[in-house]
Amino acid sequence: MAASIRGIVTPLIAEHVPHERELLEYLRPLDDDGITRLFTRPDSDELLGFGVAEAASLITPVVWLVVNEFVTRGAGVAADGFFARIRARFSRTPARGTGVAADPVPLTPEQQKAVYRRVYDEACLRGLEEAAAKQLGEAVVARLAMGPSGQ
């Protein structure tokens, strides 16, 4: 069974960044693609009540976009330039995807390290304590390694 981005991200946020659960609750009426577009549009303040600059301090968009990249592009997202692509998405509207993981390729050890490092680094930059950022990075890698049936 395919996993939605929301189905992957929600438990990660609930466990590791519980103070941001309200953001996901607020976004509940949107589908996965709608949330992805919202997190990547420079004019996202229309729906959120704040813009990308304010969202940059949140962890949820980071986790959402990492998972979205994995789900829509497969395990190859951990290659060089991974977060350069995500940062670039903050300045343009992404192409529509399905928001559902069909059958992602398992992460190689190098890709696991790259995904972990990206989540960890971005979480630290956004003010998450080092230990919490480490746990979040490990949890994202573990969840992605479980594949779509691991919900």
Commentary on this structure:
60% of the residues lie in helices and 3% in strands. With 151 residues, it is mainly alpha-helical. Strands 1-2 form a two-stranded antiparallel ribbon. It is globular, with a radius of gyration of 14 Å. The relative contact order is 0.18.
| Helix content class | 55-70%
| Rounded Rg | 14 Å
Kindly state the mean pLDDT as a whole number?
A: 75
User: What would you call the shape?
Assistant: globular
- Tally the helices: 9
Strand order of the largest sheet: 1-2
Tally of strands = 2
Biggest pleated-sheet summary: 2 strands, antiparallel
- Note poorly predicted spans: 49-53, 90-102
Strand content: under 5%
Order of helices and strands: EHHHHHHHEHH
Q: What structural category arises from helix and sheet content? A: mainly alpha
Kindly report how far apart the N and C termini lie: 9 Å
Short summary:
The chain has helices at 5-16, 21-26, 32-40, 45-48, 52-55, 60-73, 82-89, 109-125, 130-145, and strands at residues 3-4, 100-101. It is mainly α and 151 residues long.
SSE layout:
Blueprint: E1 3-4, H1 5-16, H2 21-26, H3 32-40, H4 45-48, H5 52-55, H6 60-73, H7 82-89, E2 100-101, H8 109-125, H9 130-145
Helix pairs in contact: 1-6, 1-9, 8-9
Features:
two-stranded antiparallel sheet, 151 residues, mainly alpha, 9 helices
